[in-house]
């Protein structure tokens, strides 16, 4: 997605060979016009999939997910992050390890909002090691719902999450895939659609 | 806002005389079409105020804030909640006490995203004791920015936050104001605009 790549190039901050900060339009400050364009792009890719629900993770996934939900005409559910959860019977929970922060959080979704007849699109802001997406897939499996695919705003193509999830046979659509952050420079590979 | 009141009546769950759960369309599952209507309503109330930025709080404020930002054509910034923050020089921070959870969290905003020439609209999902809004006002004051007003999706009119903030001379616009949750029944008072 050209508009997104340009935004990343002009406003993203490369902090290291593996860390890209996009706090100015996605992760802290949000550009609503860009989010709308992202929503339209994701919706166009999954328009014919019979999606009934979008599942994302608080907080940075919410804005692009809601814009996508508006175009597709379906509700959005955001999984909640918690340090630890005592077992609560009305929640689906999964553990998500963050390699960046070196901590494990539980994520949870109420059983009321993902049902076995749902066709779910997962949407998240970043895909790096894939742990968050795996946690969301786990929740969809617990609910016995169908997974339509995964939409990602920014994929770090040089980390293994995208390959790992595509290797499971899951359709992953990333709007921007970064091939390298070396030398403070963002390089992209073409938009990849792999089933 | 009639559409919102009807949604609260049909889909809200009254858990006690003071607790209303709206997890099915605002706080966990999100209704994007309703969020868009909320965004249009808030934007129409503050259209002539020269707003340059919307400030909200993760996670439930993000969806209505982004829809409002889209209509007003301005960026949204969401304050982050953290259990405790060591002093970081590039952040504005404020403490917010939750009476419901009986805990105090720090909220923070990067100094990059609220500047002294900003005219800021605060938007949040709920107004009850007003502690979150007071924390956000604190951050705007630290940034020496101008506060245009406060937009709230659901105000609990039987708690003191709304009065406290209006008494400071701040314009508060709540799209639905609940006068009572007694006997498991939601009662509203008319939309109130008080400067």
Automatic annotation (TrEMBL), chains A, B:
Residues that hold xanthine according to the record: 20, 27, 156
Compartments (UniProt record): Cytoplasm
Pathway the protein contributes to: Purine metabolism; XMP biosynthesis via salvage pathway; XMP from xanthine: step 1/1
InterPro entries hit by this protein: PRTase-like (IPR029057), PRTase_dom (IPR000836), Pur/Pyrimidine_PRTase (IPR050118), Xanthine_PRibTrfase (IPR010079)
Residues binding 5-phospho-alpha-D-ribose 1-diphosphate: 128-132
Keyword entries, A-Z: Cytoplasm, Glycosyltransferase, Purine salvage, Transferase
Subcellular location, principal: cytoplasm
Pfam families given in the database record: Pribosyltran (PF00156)
One Gene Ontology term of the molecular function aspect: xanthine phosphoribosyltransferase activity
The protein's enzyme class: transferase
PANTHER family in UniProt: HYPOXANTHINE/GUANINE PHOSPHORIBOSYLTRANSFERASE, XANTHINE PHOSPHORIBOSYLTRANSFERASE
Subunit structure: Homodimer.
Role noted for this protein: Converts the preformed base xanthine, a product of nucleic acid breakdown, to xanthosine 5'-monophosphate (XMP), so it can be reused for RNA or DNA synthesis.
Protein name: Xanthine phosphoribosyltransferase
The encoding gene: xpt
